[in-house]
Write a structure and sequence with these properties.
heterodimer; A: alpha/beta; Rossmann fold; five-stranded parallel sheet; two-stranded antiparallel sheet; 7 strands; B: alpha/beta; 2 domains; seven-stranded mixed sheet; five-stranded mixed sheet; 13 helices; about 20% strand
Chain lengths: ~270, ~325
C-alpha cells in the first residue's frame, strides 16, 4: 500500500471510505452508519500515516496494533483494511451475510488480519494494555491503538483498564475516544453522561489530548504527541459528529443503528463526491 | 486385597500451593509464561512466581474483568498468561471476558481458580465457588481440569503451559489427601482408574476423589465392589472410560464439590445416555453453603464418603437385572 501524510490525499481516501460505509450498510440492510462515519478521519490517519503495518505481512511481530473496541463500527474498519489491501474491496458488499469475512462485528475467525474480535463493549482497552505490556517484555517499540466509543465509556471495565494503564504507565498504548455524543437510545448526556471525559482520563493518569476528530491536521498532531509521550499512556478525546459527511445522518440518534434505504443510499452518495 | 492398603490418604499440600510451586517451575523453563493476579497472589500462591519473575508478573488489583482481558491481550501478543484469583471471582466477574476475549477468538490463556468449592470453610458463600465448572464448561474449546492432589495439579499446570488454548484449572484452599505418587501417570483428557470394581463406579474430581476412595473402602467391607475413576479432566470428557465403566459395573455415582445441576454429573449423564445408559446417582450441592470449618461444611452439605456409599447402594438397587 501507498502511505501518505498529505491531508488532501487523506481527505480523498476518507471520502472513499465513507462511500464504502454507506454502500455496505445499505446493501446489508442493517448495521451502524453513524458511529462508523464519525471515526473515518481517525482510522484513515492511523492506517495511511501513523501506524507501522504491512498488509502484505499481517502477522509481522513488530507491527503496531489497532483494536476497534466499539466493534459495531466494523464497516469503517473493514473499508479501511480493504483499501489498505488486507482483504478484498469487492467483498465489502457481503457485510453481515452468512459466511462473509465481514461479519456483523469484527471476528478474527473470519478475518484473521483483525487484531481482536470485538462487539461486546468495554473490553478493547484491556486487550491493548495486555498487548502493550507484552511489547515491553519483548523489547519491541510497537504501539497499540484502541478506539473506544463515548457510550462504551459507561462500561465499568473501561475504568478498571484506565486505572491499570495509568498506574502501570503503559505508554505504548494510545486510546482514542470517538466522542460523537450519541448512543443507541439517544444523546449520551440524556442516557448516562460521561462528561467531563478529558478530566476523567487525566485523573486516571493518562496524558489527554482533546481534538476535533475530523480535522486531519489535529488528528495527526495528536498521534505524534502521543508517540512522544513517555511514562504515561495517552488518551485522545476526539470530538466528532455522529453520521459525519451525510447531512441527514449528522447528529441524529436515529442513525446509530439503522441502515439507509436504497433512496437514502443514493442521496448520501451524492453528498460524498 | 483390601482397598485400604493401597491409599493411605495422608494429608498433603493444598492444590493452590501445588499450583504456585508448579507455575514457578514451568516459568523457569519457558520465558513466555507470564502471570496476572487480582490482589490475591498471597492466597492463590502466585506469589512464588511473582517473587521469582517480577517483570513477568502483572498485578491487576481488584479488577478481575480487566485482568482477564489484559491476559487475553498478552496472549494475543505471544505470551502465555496464567490468570489467577479465587475461582468465584475470576469465573464470575471475568466470565464475559473469558467468553469474548479468550474462548471466542481462541486466545491462549490459562485460568487458575483457587479456593474452589465449599471447603474454604469460614469465609462463607460469597467466597465459595460452586458454579465455576458450569461456567468454564460453557467456553467452547476450553480444557477444564479439577485435580485431586498436588501431583495431579502439577501435571495439569505443566500440560496447560505446553498446550495452546484456553484452560481452566480448579484448585482448593485446604490441604487435601495424597492420591498419586510422584511418578504417577496423569494424562489430561483421560480418566484415572484408581480402584477396580465390578458392582458400581464412583466418579469424582477434586477433593471428592479421596472421599470416593473412602467410600469404596466402606463398600468393600460390605462385599460391594466399587470402581473409582478420578475424572480430573471435566472437559473434554473421557467418554470411553465412562462408557466402559457403565457397561462393566452397571451403575454410576458422580460426586463433586459443585452445584449438582451443572457440574461434572450432568456431563457424565450426557455421555452415559449416549453410550451405555445405566442407573446413576449424583452427589453435589443443591444451593449455597455457609461458614464453618473446612472439614465441617462439606459434612453438613452432604459431601462425604457416607453420602457416596448411600448413593452407590441406591444406584445398585435400581439395576434392572
Amino acid at each position: 500500500m501507498q502511505k501518505t501524510s498529505n491531508p488532501q490525499e487523506l481527505a480523498e481516501i476518507a471520502k472513499k471510505i465513507r462511500r464504502h460505509i454507506i454502500e455496505m450498510i445499505g446493501e446489508a440492510k442493517s448495521g451502524h452508519p453513524g458511529g462508523s462515519l464519525s471515526a473515518v478521519e481517525i482510522l484513515v490517519t492511523l492506517y495511511w500515516d501513523v501506524m507501522r503495518h504491512d498488509p502484505a505481512n499481517p502477522k509481522w511481530p513488530a507491527r503496531d496494533r489497532f483494536i476497534l473496541s466499539k466493534g459495531h463500527a466494523a464497516p469503517v474498519l473493514y473499508a479501511v483494511m480493504a483499501e489498505c489491501g488486507y482483504c478484498p474491496v469487492d467483498e465489502l458488499k457481503t457485510l453481515r451475510k452468512m459466511g462473509s469475512i465481514y461479519q456483523g462485528h469484527p471476528d478474527v475467525r473470519f478475518l484473521p488480519s483483525l487484531e481482536a474480535s470485538t462487539g461486546s463493549l468495554g473490553q478493547g482497552l484491556s486487550l491493548a494494555l495486555g498487548m502493550g505490556s507484552a511489547f515491553k517484555l519483548d523489547g519491541l517499540d510497537s504501539r497499540a491503538y484502541v478506539m473506544l466509543g463515548d457510550g462504551e465509556s459507561q462500561e465499568g471495565q473501561i475504568w478498571e483498564a484506565a486505572m491499570y494503564g495509568g498506574y502501570h504507565k503503559v505508554d505504548n498504548v494510545c486510546a482514542i475516544v470517538d466522542y460523537n455524543k450519541i448512543q443507541l437510545d439517544g444523546f449520551v448526556k440524556d442516557i448516562l453522561d460521561v462528561a467531563p471525559l478529558a478530566d476523567k482520563w487525566r485523573a486516571f493518569g493518562w496524558h489527554t489530548i482533546v481534538i476535533d476528530g475530523h480535522d486531519l491536521l489535529q488528528v495527526k498532531a495528536a498521534f505524534v504527541e502521543a508517540a512522544a509521550t513517555k511514562g504515561k499512556p495517552t488518551c485522545i478525546v476526539a470530538n466528532t459528529i455522529k453520521g459525519k459527511g451525510v447531512s441527514f445522518m449528522e447528529n441524529n440518534p436515529k442513525w446509530h443503528g439503522v441502515a439507509p434505504s436504497p433512496q437514502e443510499v443514493e442521496l448520501a452518495l451524492k453528498e460524498l463526491v | 486385597m483390601s482397598v485400604a492398603t493401597k491409599y493411605e490418604l495422608k494429608l498433603g499440600a493444598a492444590t493452590r500451593e501445588a499450583f504456585g510451586r508448579a507455575l514457578a517451575e514451568v516459568a523457569r523453563e519457558n520465558p513466555n509464561i507470564v502471570g496476572c493476579d487480582a490482589d490475591l497472589s498471597k492466597s492463590t500462591m502466585m506469589t512464588y512466581f511473582a517473587k521469582e519473575f517480577p517483570a513477568r508478573f502483572f498485578e491487576c488489583g481488584i479488577a478481575e474483568a480487566n485482568m482477564v482481558a489484559v491476559g487475553a491481550g498478552l496472549a494475543m501478543a505471544g505470551k502465555i498468561p496464567f490468570v489467577s484469583s479465587f475461582s468465584c471471582f475470576v469465573m464470575n466477574k471475568g466470565f464475559e471476558q473469558l467468553r469474548t476475549d479468550v474462548a471466542y477468538p481462541g486466545a491462549n490463556v490459562k485460568v487458575v481458580g483457587t479456593h474452589s468449592g465449599i471447603s474454604i470453610g469460614e469465609d462463607g458463600p460469597s467466597q465459595m465457588s460452586i458454579e465455576d465448572l458450569a461456567l468454564a464448561g460453557a467456553l467452547p474449546g476450553f480444557t477444564v481440569i479439577s485435580p485431586a492432589d498436588e501431583v495431579a495439579t502439577k501435571a495439569a499446570v505443566k500440560w496447560a503451559a505446553a498446550h495452546f488454548g484456553g484452560v481452566f484449572i480448579r484448585t482448593g484452599r485446604a490441604k487435601v489427601p495424597v492420591i498419586y505418587s510422584a511418578d504417577a501417570k496423569i494424562e489430561i483428557g483421560k480418566a484415572n482408574q484408581l480402584l477396580p470394581g465390578t458392582d458400581v463406579t464412583l466418579v469424582a474430581h477434586g477433593m471428592m476423589v479421596a472421599e470416593s476412595i473412602r467410600a469404596a473402602e466402606a463398600l468393600d467391607s460390605e462385599g460391594i465392589s466399587a470402581r473409582v475413576l478420578d475424572l480430573h479432566t471435566i472437559k473434554p470428557l473421557d467418554e470411553e472410560a465412562l462408557a466402559q465403566a457403565a457397561r462393566e459395573t452397571g451403575a454410576l455415582v458422580v460426586a463433586e464439590e459443585h452445584l449438582v445441576d451443572c457440574g461434572l454429573g450432568v456431563r457424565v449423564a450426557q455421555a452415559i445416555a449416549r453410550h451405555a445408559p445405566v442407573p446413576m446417582e449424583f452427589i453435589g450441592l443443591e444451593t449455597y453453603a455457609e461458614s464453618g470449618t473446612p472439614e465441617g461444611v462439606p459434612i453438613k452439605y452432604g459431601l462425604t464418603s457416607a453420602h457416596i456409599v448411600a448413593a452407590a447402594k441406591k444406584a445398585i438397587a435400581r439395576k434392572t437385572k
